[in-house]
Amino acid sequence: VISYSPPQTILPIKVGGAGGSFRSERRKGTAGRGSGGTPSPPLMRSGFLSIAAYYHGLGLDVGFSTNGTLITDKVARGLAEAGLGRGVQVSLDGASPATHDRIRGAGAFQRTLRGIRALVAAGVRPSLGFSVMQGNIDEAEEVVRLASRENCRHVHFIFLMPAGNALSGFSS
Q1: pLDDT tens across 40-53, in order?
Q2: How far is CA 22 from the centre of its chain?
Q3: How many CB atoms lie within 10 A of CB 2?
Q4: Is residue 136 within 8 Å of 172, Cβ to Cβ?
Q5: Which of 18, 23, 42, 152 has the smallest number of Cβ neighbours within 10 A?
Q6: Using CA atoms, how far apart are residues 80 and 77, in angstroms rounded to an integer?
Q7: Residue 24: which of 85, 75, 70, 89 has the closest Cα?
Q8: What distance in Å separates the CA atoms of residue 25 and residue 77, rounded to the nearest whole number?
Q9: What predicted TM-score, i.e. pTM, was given to this entire model?
Q10: Count of beta carbons in the 10 Å neighbourhood of residue 125
Q11: What angle, rounded to 10 degrees, do the helices at 48-57 and 73-81 form?
Q12: How deeply is 134 buried, as exposed, middle or buried, from its count of CB atoms within 10 A (0-12, 13-18, 19+)?
């Protein structure tokens, strides 16, 4: 299944009282310049799995986006146990290490693929979020094939808005 999202602006979300908030998973080398993507703060927030399990227990669908680099076998099992079996979107901005790493940082492709495989092994079929830009559009079809080979649910094409890191002139 392929889905489309019109360009959108993503606003930071504060969670909890007394100024509590999710922190970014974006670290040096894990998210690249101009990606314009959404870092996945939930994986760095203490108690995220408990929060997700609570809302899942209320009958709500719970999901989040991640670059996948922090997903280990243990994290993937926790996500499955918390009821996020259909609610994880992993950003993959190229079908090759050269393209994805140019956008997300050196070594990110292999770490992201490792995270995707850990999710699938734990019974979580992630969707892939592909941020369409001039420098990766030629790999869109191969990303769909990669998603099929890795047993992902679908590919979600996301068109960048000229905001945040995307303003820094990343176009190739």
Answers
A1: 467 887 888 888 88
A2: 15
A3: 11
A4: no
A5: 18
A6: 5
A7: 70
A8: 19
A9: 0.73
A10: 17
A11: 30
A12: exposed
